[in-house]
Structure formats: structure tokens, C-alpha cells
Amino acid sequence: MSRGPRVAVLVFPGTWSDRDFAHVATLVGWEARMVWHTDEDLGDADAVVLPGGFAHGDHLRTGAIARFSPVMRAVESFAAAGGPVLGSCNGFQILAEAGILPGVLLRNDHLEFRCDWQPLRVERASGPWLGGLTPGETIRLPISHGEGRYYADATVLDELEAAGRVVLRYADEDGGVTADANPNGSLRSIAGITNERGNVLGLMPHPERAAEAEVGGTDGLRILRGLDAWLVAQPAAAERRL
Amino acid sequence: MRWLAEVHVRLRPGIADPEGQTIAGGLRSLGFDGVADVRAGKLLRLVFEADDRAAAEAAVREMCARLLANPVMETADWELRAEETAVLGVSS
Lengths: 242, 92
Known about the structure:
A: Rossmann fold, 11 strands, B: 3-stranded antiparallel β-sheet
């Protein structure tokens, strides 16, 4: 392997975590490339990140305008082809609006913006992002959102659960999934889900903000490092990187 | 022809609406004890050109379906009228 993963970091007007991802890229050996929302292709990206923020001011609904950005057509194709996609916070909201992930993120049940460290129970540890974690373990990542209440109808929720696509749940320090530990009223305490194939992860927490011990934790680094190991195991992706 | 559509975007029944609940609490604290429920929504006022009513109706329907409401959580309904004097941003 001669180089690190090439990661397209999408930038919409109002995105705010793009620079954090670019900074963290240097820690995990990514070649991060900022891709403006009007660009129509992702170049030779090995993976795509949709960072947090307030794309287009979150007007109308979170992600509602961003999902029609030209770059999202490329993201849809990339995701459909099995390419690794990570949407954090506003990025998750955009993926949900685009229908790449099911459900929506509604206003927090207490109507407050919540910025805090949040324990999460890892329900499933596979795929390009979570392969380095252990099912059942409790990790800590920052959350920072006013609209993170995951909602989908009961049928969709049951399908997600049955398929093991609920990968992260809000929990207490001991990994207990309780109403008190749920920071926003998400149904079934859902903090992160994947698409059917498992290559697209959407989560409200911010892995890029937990990548250095100096800022309080490194569990986010473990998630972002998962990409490299996953790519090495994909023959087509590995070949592109030689 | 110029048309005015007032689009109401509502959360689907059964989805918790903490904003509506908070408003209901505010009303009750003012003494409006009879307030049983409040649901918050959005009112969007669209002024646009279309050849006739059928075309205007079709345009509003498509705007709602594609952008104005997310069917996972919302419904949209609207009132439509010909608006000779409607000007964007100015209530008539």
C-alpha cells in the first residue's frame, strides 16, 4: 500500500466540521480533499465524508436544500456502488433527506441544542467505519446538535433492527440504554444506522472531535482508522491504491 | 398568470411535537385551561407564474413532493388562488 485513503470531504455553504476532518486526516493518514457542493464528481476518492454543520442554514428542514446539490448525485452513485460513506451530524441529516439512509432527524425533544460528551453502545462492529470496535462496548463521542431526534415509522425501525442496521445507541456510562441516557428523544435511542449494504454510516455524534487525547477522547479515531483496514480487505479498492 | 399558494406543512399525526407541547403549556400558564393540544407547523406563501389553474395546482403539488415537505414526517396541503397583485414578500 503506497498511500493512505483518498477521502472526499464535502463542503456545503454552512458546513462547519470540514476543517476538523481535514485536521484529523493528518492523524489517520488520509489524503483529505475538500469537495465543494457544486462539484459533480468525486474524482478518485476511496471514501466520502459528509461533515457536520448547517448546510444552507438548515432552512426548511435540515439537509433539505443540500440534498439537491450537484455533488449529491455523485454521492448516490458512489454509495450505490458500495463505496464507504460517513455522514456525521448534519451529514447524517443530509443522507436521510436524500433517502440514502431511512428516517429523519427531528428537533430534540427538549428543544435545546445539546453539546456534550455522550456514551454510546456499539451494537454492531463491521463495515468500513466500525470494524475496529467491539459489539457491546461503550464508547464516548461528542454530540452537538439541536435536531438529532431519530424518527422512522415502526415498520422501518423493525426492519433496521432485524437487519442489524442500528449500529450505535445512546447509552449511559455503563452501556445501559435508558430513557435518561437518551439526549434528544431518538426512537429506540438510535444514534447511528447504516444502509442495507453496510457501506454508508450515518451518526449524530462527531468522531472527528474525539481523535486526540488532549480534547478528551480518542474513540473517534478508532472509527476513522477503521476505513484503512477495510479498504485493504477490498481487492478493487486495494488495487486502486497501488 | 400569477398565483398565490399558501402551503401548510404539518408533522404527521403521532409524531411527537415538543414545540407544540411547549406552546400549549404557555397557553395554559396564561389561563387558557381548555387548550387540549397544539401542533406547530409551517406556513409557506408561494407566488409564482402558471398558465392556468390546472398547471398551478400541478406545480404546487410537485413543489411539495420534491422539496417543501418530507413525506417521512410531514404532510402538505394548500390553498391556491389567482393573485393579480401578489408581490413576493409583501402580504396582500
